[in-house]
Amino acid sequence: MTTLHSVEMTINGKTYRVNIEARTTLADFIRHSCGLTGTHVGCEHGVCGACTLQVDGRAVRSCTMYAVQADGASVTTVEGLAREDGELHPVQQAFSDCNGLQCGFCTPGMQMTIASYLEENPNPSEADIRELISGNICRCTGYQGIVRAALLAAEKMREAR
Amino acid sequence: MGVRNLGAAVHRIEDGRFITGKGKYVDDIRLPGTLSAAFLRSSEAHARITALDLSAARNIPGVVAAFSLRDFGPQAMQRMVQAYPNPAIKTDITPYPLALDEVCYVGEPIAIVIAENRYLAEDGVQAIVLELESLPCVIDAREALKPGAPKVQLAFESNLSATLNWKFGDIDKAFTDADHVFSEEYFQHRGSPHFMECRGVLAQSDLVSDRLTLWSSTQSPFLVRRYLAVYLGRDESSIRVVAPDVGGGFGPKAVHYAEELVVAMAAERLGRPVKWIEDRRENFVSTNQQRDQWWQVSVACKADGRILGIRAQCIHDNGAYVPYGLLLPNTSVVPFPGPYAIAAVDIQLHSALTNAVPTTPIRGAGRPNATFVMERTADTVARELGLDRAEVRRLNFIRKEQFPYETGAKLPSGVTVQYDSGDYHQTLDMALTASQKDTFESRRQEAAKRGKWRGLGIASYNEDSGLPPYEGATVKVLPNGRVVVEVGSCAQGQGLETIVAQIAADYFGLQTHDVLVRTGDTDLSAIALSTVGSRVAATVGPSVHLAAQQVKEKAIRLAARDFEASENDLEMIDGRVCIKGVPGKSVGLGDLSRRLIANVNLPVPEGFSPGLEATAYHTTSRPVYANGSNVCEVEVDIDTGEVHLLDYWVAHDCGTIINPRLVDGQIIGGVVHGIGNALFEHMKYDRETGQPLCNNLGEYLLPLATEMPQIHLQHMESPTPVNPLGIKGAGEGGTIPGIACVISAIEDALKPLGVKINEYPLSPERLLELIDERRYHKAS
Q1: Same domain, B431 and B565
Q2: Full-prediction pTM beyond 0.90?
Q3: Does B492 touch chain A (CB under 8 A)?
């Protein structure tokens, strides 16, 4: 019968300990066990990128990772992107400033992908950004606003350094 | 204060929740005790159900229930309601919510399993014993109409769903008078919708109030309520349907689906909330799509390129059922003659049933198909007569002074087709000038030196947006002074809340973010229809305008009474009624609102109705006609078949622009949808077995950031006289000409080879085939 595994994870600075089945995806764990519904599931086969979050600082597709694989990890979701005082992350602000979103469903995954990348490459070209988000699908915007948002966020983050 | 919100590029008020992960899509709503559902679906395109045993599923620990349609009792044993009845439908058949004895496409739902979580529900589905006896199937709509073709459903006499005929003018005379007649055949394929949030339903049956609440990822909460009420035999007032945040719609979410009924019945039966969230694999086989059309087109024209008439035949793939009347086939014929002054049109469309997922509108519905036919026809005339493609369009366009222009056709409602306003020549010139078409040939030569074949595409269109009759709006001032606008219409990313707030805010001297907007809930008082057909801004916008105007007038009238002042001496600033030129003399909207609420023994001021609020409906019998022209440049690698999209220019006229940021977003996103249709998206079926050959986003290609060109926009504003704000629709204007524009550019690039492109999607493999055919043809 079903065996449950105890999983402990730090998500956005808060520790969660939950007993789950081994087959529980990280996305379902985050959404249903922890109630953090900002992470969205768009395809459940690792193509659309909507469920992207950060595991130990790296962007990961949470629909193709099991929660038990992230046992002991530190996870950041879109809910943890803004500062604790509520000040938006530059990527979030830029998304609104540049019309980087419409229905908002792909937005958390896009933002987590871009925020993670800009830590490693603070001065990207437009081609870099297009390549980066080629694994994230948006059906609404045509990507143009998202690309502008990523470049604007990079600029703001460089200025803040 | 003082800054007009209408027309301003204000930030969206929706963004705050979406960028912080606080959006509330159906699957984000958590009700205590909610169960999860999964559906057993047909694995065959056409089969008889010979055995169905749910007992093994029910025996799995954690599975709470499993139902076939029969398990829901006699009331459930009926077919779904026809959303749009039409006497022209010859074979009018909607599905049972769960198949009873026969399945007619891969993915048709057969049973539902309900469990403590989705994983267990899917375990339950796996355990069901289902036996299917295969029946012959037909996938190709042309084959379906041939004598002796397998019947899509055993009970059908014919696979012909309906024949539509869209005609006006003297078509025989047009062809008699012609100097030239050119004929072409086109194959058009438009794939699946692929909004990023799959469909989802959450149903809660409240035994205390005897009410059923359904949260659905829908574009049409009011229609879903209507059809639920009929099917379930309930009063509409006992049902509430809410469209919460919806992650993209593009048309197919406007349709009422079996899962909405079945999940509702399960929640009623179990007394616990039940949630079903479609997964992407299911989405490929259960959400309505748009597929194939084959066209045979003849154009009659004079030697100078003037088009006299168009005659066409179309076979349209309807899929297995007719859930949505003839809306999709209709939109494939009604756009003719597009932006052209053509005296005679005769279009006949046969809608054929096939053993595949039903087809209903996707962004633009049949308009991109009709526009493809018209634009390829314009290109054909130019090519065959050696004329410039832009000149052929200019010669045939309706001229500015001809508006309002009656095409000669009548809508199914009996209203004549009347294009209200615009300047088609100017939008074309704007796009051509921006693209620097004059110097294009030098860019073509430069590319040739690099071994690339460069082409320029042109496509123009107009669109019957803002479809009648109305969307309602209620504007109210709460006792605390907050201005609230309630609309039954809902959004799937368009920014409805923002534009509604913009329109209302101006009446009260407020900023957009001061206004609270509620949408997409049948418990809101204003009647609504559906967010489809680029209609909501042009229908709900004027209603918000009328309601806000009434509330403002009432507030000023009440303040004038209290101040003993003339209404003309009062103005609205920052949500307060002020006496002009008398600083400090003002009254807040909250104070005025509290005068009109019910207070014991305090009569309502004489001459006033209760409440500082108004509900208004701007009603119309006519759509409003947006228009535009697109130009794009591509480079083709004839060794690999790769098409590189370089730049894309749009000149667009959607009447009064409420918010340029949002219009830009709609147009750019729409163009990319068209590019996807032109080059990437192909919902393939195996023609023998009826099996879908792609069921994931790795096999079905959507446009990605790396392939998209820079899209440059220009706006022109020709306000429509049909509504008081002059608004026309913008939601589909990017998609409608997009396919034609891209294909026109590729054909232009390959002009020296004489390659003709009469089809899409155009994969690199297919393009190489067309190039090779031509080379072989030339060599021999």
Answers
A1: no
A2: yes
A3: yes
